[in-house]
Amino acid sequence: MLIDHWPLLGLRLRTGRLELRLPDEEELAELADVAAKGVHEPDRRPFLRPWSDLPPAERAREVVQRHWRRRGSWTPRDWSLDLTVFEDGHPVGIQQVGAQDFGILREVRTGSWLGLEHQGRGIGRSMRSAVLHLAFAGLGASEATTMSFADNPAPLRISRRLGYRPDGIARDIVDGEAVVTERLRLTRSDWELTDRPEVSVAGLGPCLALFGA
Asked: What sequence ranges are listed for the domain N-acetyltransferase (predicted)?
């Protein structure tokens, strides 16, 4: 069976009404449809890469191709796990967690997107909490990092509620203009002190070697 060669297919994270896992092909198509409907208001640009500003059909195709690329390029030294977030059995977005040289650095980075119609209901905090539990409790991470534009308050608010602390800024160019990105860092000790939802993890054991853990 394919799962014998790619055990990540059996990894499951559950918290409250959400399940995070890799999608099958039909679920990937449904996730692409969610992206096609929009992931932010037209007058906003929350991502450094402009994939979310593509026309709907191209935006959906980008989601599918990125999913395949990240599976195909995976190594224990350089990996990115793009978990589909399911609510009541239907995809609503992506929660990503990745690392380079995790076996040495014990540090992960996170990123995410959520369909526009599913925002503002607490899903963003729950899905980030799920992958932080995977990282700290499951993989033995020491720290987690994330980044967000300074004028994008929702993810910054989630990060602060989860215990992240400021970790400097980066300056980039978007559409010919300078933008400021805030970096944030969460240590294991701060994660342990933070109130967070209960998370269950299944199917992790066979995957550990793939994470370089």
From this structure: 18-187
Q: Which domain holds residue 174?
A: 2-211
pTM, two decimals, is 0.91
Partners of 209 in the beta sheet? none
Q: What is the DSSP string of the chain?
A: -HHHH-GGGG-EEEETTEEEE---HHHHHHHHHHHHT-SS-TT----SSGGGGS-HHHHHHHHHHHHHHHHHT-BTTEEEEEEEEEETTEEEEEEEEEEESHHHH-EEEEEEEE-GGGTTSSHHHHHHHHHHHIIIIIS--SEEEEEEETT-HHHHHHHHHTT-EEEEEEEEEETTEEEEEEEEEEEHHHHHHS-----EEES-GGGHHHHT-
pLDDT(117) > 80: yes
Q: What angle do CA 144, 150, 153 make, to 5 degrees?
A: 85
The CATH number linked to 206 is: 3.40.630.30
Greater confidence (179 vs 39) lies with 179
Residue-wise pLDDT tens digits, 132-175: 999 999 999 999 999 887 777 788 888 899 999 999 988 877 77
What are the structure tokens assigned to 107, written together? 């540090």
For the chain, the domain total comes to 1
What are 178-207's pLDDT values in tens digits? 888 889 999 999 999 988 889 999 999 999
CB contact at 8 A, 18 and 86: yes
